[in-house]
Structure formats: C-alpha cells, structure tokens
Design a protein that fits this description.
- The chain has 192 residues and is an alpha/beta fold.
- Helices cover 53% and strands 10% of the residues.
- The chain has one domain: Rossmann fold (3-Layer(aba) Sandwich), CATH 3.40.50.620.
- Strands 3-2-1-4-5 form a five-stranded parallel beta sheet, sandwiched between helices.
- α1 packs parallel to α2 (39-55).
- The chain is globular.
Length: 192
C-alpha cells in the first residue's frame, strides 16, 4: 500500500518507517505539528524530521504551520484534554493530505511512543479514516521503542525531552504535581 506516515518527530518515525517498509509498503512522511512550544523547539523538531527523511530516503511532505494561538484556543479551557485535540488535529491533517494525494492509507508515528494514549489514537484514527474515506493503518509500534532510540542515536538525531506542547514542557520541568526540576529531569532523561 501507499501509506502516508504522520511524523511527529524524526526519532519516533524511524522504527515505524522500517516496519512499514519491511512489510512492503511505499511510505511517505507527513510533518505537521502545529502545537510544539516554544518556536525554537518546533524548528528543531522540524529540522530533525527533515534530516531523518534525508538519511532514510523518505519522501516528506511538510505542512510547516506553527500555530500556538490555535492550539491554545482549543485547549486552554480544559488543558487535561489537550492530547485528544492534539491527536485529532494532526490525524485529520494527515488524513486530508492522504485523500488529496491519492494515498491508500495513513498512520502515525504516535503509535510508536509508550507515553501516548495508544487506544485513543487508534480510535480517533479509525474514526477519521471513515470520515475521510482513507484507511487508517493500525500497527502497534511500541515493541520497537528501544530499537528506535538506538537508531536515532546512531543517526545523530536531536531527541526531545518532552511531548511538545507548552503544558508538557511545564510538566517536564515541574512535574504533574509540581515536583522540582531535579527529580523530574532525571526521570525524563531516562524516558527519552
């Protein structure tokens, strides 16, 4: 199948890309991550996705939109539900791009992370697939977590220390319950 792979970042896309190619799929990447904060972090992840795509000969479609205001307008009232908005907005964007460009399916590197809400991503992807008329290709890529870390280090890719939004940046430094920087940083450095 021709599959459009939403690429949240270079390191998270490597293992899914390898798995999809090993299964014989023709894969193109799609970068759209409008919620990453601050802008310097957004630019660094965008540039790393481009670097990974070049190193892996992955065609990459860029939707280079940094829209902090839209993200905040949609999540500020209920920050605890921000991930749902984030998943849905990015999956809708990749599904639209897949439909517009004649791909048979779409998927997301979000399915690689042990720290994302996997079943919610799957359910949203399947629903959006029905709405868009393009199949959501589901595969649980979490089994390759350590392999993806190894490969990203081997390729010299920048590896981020938090999910991406302003709220996850705050949690990275202060923790969910406001614990101090030292305690949380050691946890995150092992996590990523």
């Amino acid at each position: 199948m021709r599959i459009l792979l939403h690429t949240c970042c270079g390191p998270c896309a490597i293992f899914p890309l390898q798995q999809l190619r090993a299964a014989g799929h023709d894969v193109t990447g799609f970068f759209y991550n409008h919620n990453i904060h601050p802008y310097q972090e957004y630019a660094r992840r965008r540039d790393t996705a481009i670097q990974m795509a070049e190193q892996e000969a992955l065609p990459l479609i860029m939707r280079d939109d940094y829209d902090l205001e839209e993200f905040l307008a949609n999540v500020a009232a209920e920050p605890d539900k921000r991930c749902s908005y984030c998943y849905a907005s990015r999956l809708r964007a990749v599904a639209r791009a897949a439909a517009d460009r004649g791909f048979e399916a779409f998927t997301a590197s979000l399915l690689y992370s042990r720290y994302q809400k996997h079943e919610e991503i799957r359910a949203l992807g399947e629903q959006i697939g029905i709405e868009s008329g393009v199949t959501f290709f589901y595969q649980d890529f979490r089994s390759g977590w350590q392999e993806g870390i190894r490969l990203s280090k081997e390729l010299g890719l920048y590896r981020q220390q938090y999910c991406g939004c302003v709220y996850s940046e705050k949690e990275r430094y202060l923790g969910k319950q406001g614990q101090g920087l030292e305690e949380k940083c050691s946890e995150c450095s092992e996590r990523i």
